[in-house]
UniProtKB/TrEMBL annotation:
A GO term, aspect molecular function: methyltransferase activity
Organism of derivation: Algoriphagus oliviformis
Name recorded for this polypeptide: Methyltransferase domain-containing protein
Record domain Methyltransferase: where: 43-140
InterPro entries, A to Z: Methyltransf_25, SAM-dependent_MTases_sf
An annotated GO BP: methylation
UniProt entry keywords in alphabetical sequence: Methyltransferase, Transferase
Top-level taxon of the source organism: Bacteria
Length: 180
């Protein structure tokens, strides 16, 4: 599936993707600058989309590290499985609400999210954020890309520490929230 097909899929499913465009390289670099992916054993990505963020994670991922990517859109899943055939990368076509079913008792060093929390039902959002908090290693971080600064209050309900950054170098400009 080419980029034009992925864009068509993106616009056809705005109610679940919540994005007007795919994440820019600048946004990906900004998000990942708050991590040490190269030292991580397990990373979760919530909302793989076209694989923009996935690619950035893989470029930093050690051969011993493992990446689990959660995506509910089957077209995006198929495309990412072809794009990322590495043995230490697993594309999971399931909701992030079910992340605990795939962890086998392990904890994640980082959870990287581009989920559209602003449009998800409250129960779904609460379930994902609760499971994310509970799935992080003691020194783990959740890095979230969002277009809404007001979500900061929501994230503070689940995480005791929160930093907010901003980048203009994305369409539209985006906030990066680092939760731990």
């Amino acid at each position: 599936m080419g980029k034009s097909d992925l864009l068509l899929e993106l616009y056809s499913n705005l109610s679940t993707t919540g994005a007007l465009a795919f994440s820019s390289r600048a946004l990906v670099n900004k998000m990942l600058s708050y991590t040490h992916i190269e030292q991580a054993d397990l990373i979760l990505e919530l909302g793989g989309g076209d694989g923009s963020i996935t690619q950035g994670i893989i470029e930093r991922l050690s051969p011993q590290g493992e990446l689990l990517v959660f995506e509910i859109n089957s077209s995006f899943c198929e495309s990412m499985r072809r794009q990322f055939p590495q043995e230490n990368v697993r594309i999971i076509c399931d909701s992030a609400e079910n992340m605990d079913k795939y962890l086998g008792g392990r904890s994640a060093d980082y959870i990287i999210s581009s989920l559209p929390f602003v449009i998800l039902p409250k129960e779904v959002t609460d379930e994902i954020l609760s499971k994310s908090r509970d799935s992080l290693a003691p020194k783990g971080k959740m890095v979230i890309m969002t277009y809404s600064f007001h979500l900061k209050r929501l994230f503070k309900k689940f995480f005791s520490h929160l930093e907010t950054k901003f980048t203009f170098r994305n369409l539209p400009p985006a906030f990066v929230m680092i939760c731990h």
